[in-house]
Design brief:
The protein is 79% helix and 0% strand. By secondary structure, the chain is mainly alpha-helical. It has one domain. The termini are close together. Pfam families: EamA.
Length: 303
């Protein structure tokens, strides 16, 4: 019997997923355009306008069925409240870091995030690592230790971003909810506090829509909902159509672009000492990704 042809990759899913990571990679430029706005206000507007888009999209596609399905799972309701807090912290820290001149460190956070996921899998889900995976995690830990020693303090921004997004992914993994529907409920949880804060700011406490900033800034705040929602919906679409091993490789597009922007566009320092720490982390990522691709190919079905 002849060997069966290898299963092709959905080109549209591949293009959408890659485009999603490219958008996430260049988004620091967008938030930088809003640097005159306090990070907490940007965060609140981001929640409000993305909530309107995501929930509106869900209602158009599924009516109220998506919410009824989640409401039938009390455990999911509580878990999504927690994941909403985690993603809000992640978004807020990221926006603040970009506009405070720490784009390079934000890229570090998303470089080490996959390996943080591995550690959480071991500690919480009791997953077992293979030898090469342990070596990969050790390389990343050595890189973080080197950056901590050379700077005199841990890279708190990177660790905060990686930790919050890793915990977010863990919570979402433990809840059997459609990704976009889960985002919709998270958005609803965050909507009222964000709306209350924006209304308070507009009532004479530095709000931008009352005329403190230009019309262009106001439009950028509103469009921030699109910048938030569209890549998330695109990711949910693409990740279901291509192998996870391919997603694992594509995810490094975003932090790579962020690093390049931090060095070449925002002119942040990136000396040999910092490069050495990043290099150890990149080595760990290369070992981890390479081991995953090798194993996926070994397990590929043949006739």
């Amino acid at each position: 019997m002849s060997a069966a042809p290898a299963q092709g990759i959905d080109r549209r899913g591949l293009a959408v997923t890659a485009g999603t990571f490219v958008l996430w990679g260049v988004v620091p430029v967008y938030w930088h355009l809003l640097k005159t706005v306090p990070a907490l206000q940007i965060m609140a507007h981001r929640v409000i306008w993305s909530a309107l888009l995501v929930v509106g999209w869900l209602l158009l596609r599924h009516g109220g069925q998506w919410l009824r399905l989640i409401a039938a799972q009390p455990r999911a309701l509580a878990a999504l409240a927690l994941s909403g807090v985690l993603i809000a912290f992640n978004w807020g820290l990221y926006i603040w870091a970009v506009n405070a001149g720490h784009v390079v460190e934000t890229s570090l956070g998303y470089f080490i995030n996959p390996l943080v996921n591995v550690v959480l899998g071991v500690l919480v889900l009791h997953e077992r690592l293979r030898r090469l995976q342990w070596i990969a995690v050790s390389c990343a830990a050595a890189g973080v230790a080197w950056l901590t020693w050379s700077a005199g303090s841990p890279p708190w921004i990177a660790l905060g971003l990686a930790g919050s997004f890793g915990l977010y992914g863990l919570v979402r993994k433990l809840v059997a909810v459609d990704p976009v529907a889960g985002l919709g409920l998270e958005s609803l949880y965050l909507l009222l506090p964000s709306l209350a804060y924006v209304l308070w700011a507009e009532a004479g406490h530095g709000g931008g829509f009352s005329g403190q900033w230009s019309l262009g800034i106001d439009l950028l705040l509103v469009f921030g909902g699109v910048v938030t929602a569209v890549p998330l919906i695109g990711f949910a679409y693409g990740v279901r159509r291509i192998p996870l091993s391919v997603v694992g490789l594509l995810q490094y597009i975003a932090p790579t672009l962020q690093l390049l922007l931090g060095v070449w566009f925002f002119r942040e320092p990136f000396d040999a000492t910092r490069a050495l720490g990043f290099g150890a982390i990149w080595l760990g990522l290369a070992l981890y990704a390479g081991e995953g691709v090798w194993r996926s190919r070994r397990k590929a079905p043949v006739a």
